[in-house]
Specification:
Helix content is about 65%, strand content about 0%. By secondary structure, the protein is mostly helical. The longest helix has 20 residues.
Length: about 130
């Protein structure tokens, strides 16, 4: 005599058995994502959607960080960090997350001046060094 299943699959499919963290992306997936982000950035830039553009640049930079393309990530993060709407409007929690990313990328790039500026702002707890 067999035991009844613990999960009824009549109305609901079985849960996924694979590990979502084990999924690896091939280079064409990464290039597709980069292309979609770049097109989205240009689209929202034309429509003057500053916050959306900053968010997309941040997400694209995170993708570059994951791929260890430090210079490209820094090129996207730095303008967002220096003159972002997040800073002007006082979104300090978001700016703190961004500051940590800029610090890590500056360290990976070997940009000592930027690293010092970012660390100085963090130590002084001043909100307007840039």
């Amino acid at each position: 005599m067999s035991l009844p299943p613990l999960y009824d699959t009549f109305f609901i499919r079985e849960p996924l058995r694979d590990d979502p963290f084990a999924v690896t992306h091939n280079p064409s997936d990464i290039n597709t994502l980069i292309d979609v982000y770049s097109k989205s950035i240009s689209h929202f830039t034309k429509r003057s959607r500053e916050r959306a553009v900053e968010r997309l640049k941040y997400e694209l930079a995170l993708l570059y960080i994951r791929e260890q393309k430090w210079k490209k990530a820094l090129r996207l993060l730095l303008p967002v960090y220096e003159a972002s709407a997040w800073r002007r409007e006082g979104w300090w929690n978001l700016l703190e997350l961004l500051r940590h990313q800029v610090r890590d990328v500056a360290r990976a790039c070997g940009d000592a001046e930027l690293l010092l500026r970012v660390e100085w702002e963090g130590m002084c707890d001043c909100k307007c060094v840039f």
